[in-house]
Structure formats: C-alpha cells, structure tokens
C-alpha cells in the first residue's frame, strides 16, 4: 500500500470553509484504479493545519492517477477557486510506502 499526505496551512478562520470543500469533493479520485481511501485531517492544536491523506494499492497506481487527466482537471479547478488566498496555498507533500499495519 502507498499513502500520500498533502499538508497545508490556512488562516484558522477559513479552516471550516476548506473542510466543507473537501466534504463536498467531487470524489473523482475514488474511481481511480488502485485507489483505496481518502482522509481529511485537521491538526488538533492548530486548526488551520489541514492534511489530505490518500491511500493507493501501490506507488504505481498513485503515479497513474497523478499523470492522468482527472488529476489535472481537479487541480485546475483549485487554481480557479474564488478565494485567491486559499487558491495560492502550496501544500507540503509527503509520499510513503506502508511497511506495517
């Protein structure tokens, strides 16, 4: 299994807005070959720190997703988000091979 974290900081007063965006996400990734699960995490001590966590069956299935048209479509929509402060945020991305459960 393979997991990817995208962590970003938003102004704390906009955290709920971002959470709502992800609660109402398109779910296109859910249909990607090898996709396993999605989690949205909020730091317990810093409400503006949000992490998106995706699980895929393998690194290869994740890379297929990233190289695909649906990935590009989703991320192009983010750039057009009306709140330009949120649209300009660049996440810190980490990629991990799951080695134990």
Structural class: alpha+beta
Radius of gyration: 14 Å
Instruction: Give the C-level CATH assignment.
Output: Alpha Beta
CATH architecture: 2-Layer Sandwich
What is the ordering of alpha helices and beta strands? EHEEHHHE
Q: Could you say how many structural domains there are in total?
A: 1
Task: Figure out the total of helices.
Answer: 4
Distance between the termini: 10 Å
- State the helicity in percent bands: 25-40%
- Strands ordered across the widest β-sheet: 2-3-1-4
What are the segments in which pLDDT stays under 50 over at least 5 consecutive residues?
Answer: none
Strand content: 25-35%
Shape: globular
Number-wise, the strands total 4
Largest sheet: 4 strands, antiparallel
Instruction: Please state the average pLDDT score.
Output: 91
Q: What is CATH's topology name?
A: Alpha-Beta Plaits
Protein name: Heme-degrading monooxygenase HmoA
Domain ABM: 2-90
Organism: Salipaludibacillus aurantiacus
Keywords: Monooxygenase, Oxidoreductase
Question: If you had to describe this structure to a student in words, what would you say it looks like?
Answer:
Strands 2-3-1-4 form a four-stranded antiparallel β-sheet. A hairpin with a 6-residue loop joins strand 2 (35-42) and strand 3 (49-56). By secondary structure, it is an alpha+beta fold. The model has no long low-confidence stretch (mean pLDDT 91). The radius of gyration is 14 Å and the shape is globular. It has four helices and four strands, in the order E-H-E-E-H-H-H-E. 33% of the residues lie in helices and 30% in strands. The protein has helices at residues 15-23, 59-67, 69-79, 84-87, and strands at 2-9, 35-42, 49-56, 92-97. The protein has one domain (2-97): 2-Layer Sandwich (Alpha-Beta Plaits).
